[in-house]
């Protein structure tokens, strides 16, 4: 029966009509056939992410191999297993054409180890077109929260492969590497991109104490490219990063303020965000170790304006962008090293390393006009 299930998942859409989220006639804010749309809960028990790539897709007989494709995706999931809620943030780059799957949607979490197929356990709204990046690649996104019970419209042994099969969100928490995320298209019915889940940072409350505080004042004059050659950053742009670290509990809280964001540009990076802390001494490039929230414009949030003006050392309201959060590791970046390992915690990075040698790390953000970095600054103890 399982063998038949896997064949059905890989089958061409010629026998089954392709479904897309835009064709789903259910109430946008109500029940879906695959779960109930809900608001984000107050806390999460875990978080997971993956960089999904064509080379991870398991191709079956009669399906087209996507390995020559330049597509990729970032799948981020936050779980509250106490309340049976999963929140998703899915971005696809250069995934083109219509979606195709016999499931309710063509975007899933499946249960199966790396290199093997497996049944879908969760279906998510297919990412919808949002624009093009600086290279002309199509961008798609899907974001929201669902509460179980979950259904997929795929059956095995007479039961839907979602919650009816005995699947729970706790199963993902217990063994994330036993699950993968993917999306299927009419051209690549076995999957356009795929990636195994990896434990990732989860939002937490501010801890009772910090073991260290680091800072940088990032400017365009400090930017280097991937060959460690100095290149111009954004003239007149300044970024202040303050990192509060509790290495005992693997927690980092950060505050970022950007003054003079490059006009007419957008954030741009192949990582899961465009704002990072990288390994790399002054003048040297290095991989990102932490992916931080991209600062957003603030116009009338006076609490944030007051807080971040104190970092800038001057009074200003117009043109400020800010970001802040407290997160607990492990940390992921959405970029892979030469071994195919995420460059965050999975590569061996720890907050303790950051504490012990802050000048060996820098902070930056990247934009469509300044791909190497709009600003950069080495971290130091203030």
Automatic annotation (TrEMBL):
Residues 46-199, 212-381 form the CHRD domain. Keywords: Signal. This is CHRD domain-containing protein. Residues 1-17 form the signal peptide. Transmembrane segments: none annotated. It comes from the Eukaryota. Pfam families: CHRD.
């Amino acid at each position: 029966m399982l063998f038949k299930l896997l064949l059905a998942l890989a089958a061409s859409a010629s026998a089954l009509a392709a479904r897309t989220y835009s064709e789903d006639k259910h109430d946008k804010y109500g029940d879906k056939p695959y779960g109930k749309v809900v608001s984000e809960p107050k806390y999460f028990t875990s978080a997971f992410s993956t960089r999904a790539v064509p080379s991870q897709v398991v191709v079956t007989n009669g399906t087209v191999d996507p390995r020559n494709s330049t597509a990729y995706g970032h799948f981020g999931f936050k779980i509250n297993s106490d309340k049976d809620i999963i929140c998703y943030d899915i971005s696809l780059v250069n995934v083109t054409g219509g979606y195709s799957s016999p499931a309710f949607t063509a975007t899933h979490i499946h249960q199966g180890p790396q290199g093997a197929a497996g049944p879908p356990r969760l279906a998510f709204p297919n990412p919808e077109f949002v624009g093009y990046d600086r290279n002309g690649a199509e961008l798609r996104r899907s974001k929201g929260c669902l509460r179980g019970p979950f259904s997929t419209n795929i059956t095995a042994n007479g039961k839907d492969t979602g919650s009816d099969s005995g699947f729970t969100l706790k199963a993902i928490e217990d063994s994330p590497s036993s699950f993968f995320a993917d999306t299927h298209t009419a051209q690549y019915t076995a999957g356009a991109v795929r990636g195994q889940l990896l434990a990732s940072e989860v939002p937490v409350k501010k801890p009772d104490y910090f073991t260290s505080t680091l800072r940088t004042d990032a400017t365009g004059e400090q930017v280097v490219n991937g060959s460690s050659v100095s290149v111009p950053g954004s003239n007149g742009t300044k970024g202040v990063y303050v990192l509060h670290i509790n290495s005992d509990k693997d927690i980092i809280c950060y505050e970022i303020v950007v003054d003079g964001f490059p006009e007419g540009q957008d954030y741009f990076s192949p990582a899961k965000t465009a704002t990072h802390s990288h390994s790399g001494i002054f003048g040297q490039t290095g991989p990102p170790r932490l992916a931080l929230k991209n600062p957003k414009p603030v116009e009338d949030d006076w609490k944030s304006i007051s807080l971040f003006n104190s970092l800038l050392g001057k009074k200003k309201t117009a043109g400020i962008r800010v970001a802040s959060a407290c997160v607990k590791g492990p940390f992921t970046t959405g970029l892979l090293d030469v071994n195919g390992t995420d460059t965050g915690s999975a590569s061996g990075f720890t907050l303790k390393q950051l504490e012990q040698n802050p000048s060996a790390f820098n902070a930056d953000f990247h934009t469509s006009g300044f791909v190497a970095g709009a600003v950069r600054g080495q971290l130091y103890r203030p």
